[in-house]
């Protein structure tokens, strides 16, 4: 209920408050936890992940229910490093008895508590068998019609009662982690945009997600969970993920399962746009991604998780060792150090990025058609649109944030735009070129102080044809170039 109220407030914010207040409202809702009563340890993890966003990718390794430490330990033996994130499983698929399942889940809980105490991150998957059936892999992959699926999310039915019983049984073990102060990146009902699980490709999937979310947060008061929505990367066997997104009010992380080394920039970019600045991650992978490629074009991934034995089936020991020792990849020790560093920062410490408001007109008027976090201003859209919600022509953008320089000296600020653009720094109009133009470079001057957060506002409009907006700088100590992501901070 509280999350719905927040969303309603957000919808009306642009009509009721000033532009500055609107920015603050957007960020508060966008980056707020899905669970309004989130436990302090989980909130600390969430804030740490946001602060690390864009700096590198957190390494992760999954283990199975029956052997919760095997591949994590093997990774340490091969590479000399533990992954920062340890993936666990709570779903049973080998026809175990109830007592066997309880014993195996307890072993998972014990391992997760040890992992958390060692400074690592815990995530958990849940391959749920169809409620009321035996815990077999075939019952996880059972085919189910829309009509039959509806019975499981309709209160009062036998199927609904079976679902609730399964959820309550699983919650007992999540409660043990909550009592131990362990935050969990909770990743249920993954790959829902494919047809291989009983919950997959269902038009009412969001109701199943909401049912679990409400049962766990409201009824069981599991406030240690960060909710990870994890579709499969779009391919010939599954739908576009966006059609199954339950909304920001019940999701903390958008994670994409990527196989066959299909690490396309478009997967990263679409998920980032869908989340409008929320955390994004690689929920599962077999082949390891290239850290160099991620650093260059896909740096918003917060973490990746290699799936069980596939790490060693799809990657050589040399590749695994090289990956774990890349500077862009965070191991457990490196993550622990970063987390300790950020824990000392006040809550008011700035977050990276620029607040972007996109309008389907050239006058920046009315309610934005799209609001999102952009890492910097380096867009060459040509004749494409910035987003499906925005027209390819006759649109405008306002970016707001703060700019931090490395040197105290005079800077030249440059824009390259098609069409109009203007730039304010500390409320001073540095560049004013609000005209139709084709790829023109403009220049202004400003004195910047190293480490100071200078107020920044950039406005841009596209008339027709090619669209381009690029913001650059230069100084005696700063080579001319695009202002990088690390120089911008949100309002």
Structural summary, described in words:
- The protein folds into two domains: 33-343, Glycosidases (TIM Barrel), CATH 3.20.20.80; 354-489, Toxin - Anthrax Protective Antigen, domain 1, CATH 3.90.182.
- It is globular and about 70 Å long.
- By secondary structure, the chain is α/β, with parallel strands linked by helices.
- The chain starts with a helix and ends with a strand.
- Helix 1 runs antiparallel to helix 2 (19-31) and helix 3 (40-52) packs across helix 14.
- Helices cover 33% and strands 25% of the residues.
Notable traits:
disordered N terminus, single chain, 25% strand, TIM Barrel, 33% helix, 491 residues
Low-pLDDT parts are 1-27
**Main sheet record:** 8 strands, parallel
Structural class designation: alpha/beta
- Per CATH, what is the topology of the largest domain? TIM Barrel
First CA to last CA: what distance?
28 Å
Shape: globular
Q: Please give the count of helices.
A: 14
Helix content: 25-40%
């Amino acid at each position: 209920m509280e999350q719905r109220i927040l969303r309603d407030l957000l919808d009306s914010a642009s009509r009721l408050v000033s532009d500055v207040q609107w920015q603050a409202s957007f960020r508060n809702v966008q980056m707020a936890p899905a669970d309004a009563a989130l436990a302090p340890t989980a909130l600390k993890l969430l804030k740490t992940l946001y602060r690390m966003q864009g700096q590198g990718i957190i390494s992760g390794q999954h283990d199975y229910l029956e052997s919760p430490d095997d591949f994590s330990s093997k990774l340490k033996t091969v590479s000399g490093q533990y992954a920062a994130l340890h993936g666990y499983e709570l779903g049973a698929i080998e026809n175990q008895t109830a007592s066997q399942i309880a014993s195996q889940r307890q072993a998972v809980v014990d391992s997760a508590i040890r992992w958390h105490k060692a400074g690592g991150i815990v995530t958990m998957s849940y391959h749920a068998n169809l409620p009321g059936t035996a815990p077999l892999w075939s019952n996880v992959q059972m085919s189910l019609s829309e009509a039959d699926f509806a019975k499981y999310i309709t209160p009062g039915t036998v199927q609904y009662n079976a679902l609730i019983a399964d959820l309550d049984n699983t919650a007992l073990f999540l409660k043990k982690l909550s009592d131990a102060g362990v935050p969990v990146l909770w990743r249920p009902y993954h790959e829902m945009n494919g047809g291989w699980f009983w919950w997959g490709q269902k038009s009412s999937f969001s109701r199943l997600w909401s049912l679990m979310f409400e049962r766990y947060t409201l009824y069981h008061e599991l406030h240690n969970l960060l909710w990870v929505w994890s579709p499969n990367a779009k391919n010939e066997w599954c739908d576009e993920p966006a059609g199954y997104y339950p909304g920001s009010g019940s999701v903390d992380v958008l994670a994409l399962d990527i196989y066959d080394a299909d690490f396309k920039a478009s997967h990263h970019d679409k998920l980032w746009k869908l989340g409008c600045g929320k955390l994004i991650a690689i929920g599962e992978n077999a082949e390891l991604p290239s850290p160099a490629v991620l650093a260059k074009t896909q740096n918003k991934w917060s973490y990746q998780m290699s799936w069980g034995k596939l790490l060693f089936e799809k990657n050589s020991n040399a590749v695994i060792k090289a990956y774990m020792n890349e500077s862009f990849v965070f191991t457990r020790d490196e993550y622990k150090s970063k987390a300790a560093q950020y824990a000392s920062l006040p809550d008011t410490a700035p977050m990276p990025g620029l607040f972007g408001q996109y309008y389907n007109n050239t006058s920046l008027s009315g309610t934005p058609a799209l609001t999102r976090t952009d890492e910097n201003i380096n867009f060459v859209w040509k004749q494409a649109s910035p987003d499906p919600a925005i027209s390819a022509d006759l649109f405008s953008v306002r970016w707001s944030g703060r700019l931090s320089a490395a040197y105290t000296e005079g800077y030249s600020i440059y824009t390259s735009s098609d069409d109009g653009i203007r730039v304010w720094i500390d409320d001073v109009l540095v560049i004013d070129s609000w005209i139709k133009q084709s790829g023109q470079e403009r220049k202004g001057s400003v004195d910047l102080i190293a480490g100071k957060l200078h107020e920044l506002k950039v406005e841009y409009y596209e008339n027709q044809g090619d669209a381009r907006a690029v913001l650059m700088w230069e100084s005696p100590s700063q080579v001319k170039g695009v202002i990088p992501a690390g120089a911008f901070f949100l309002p």
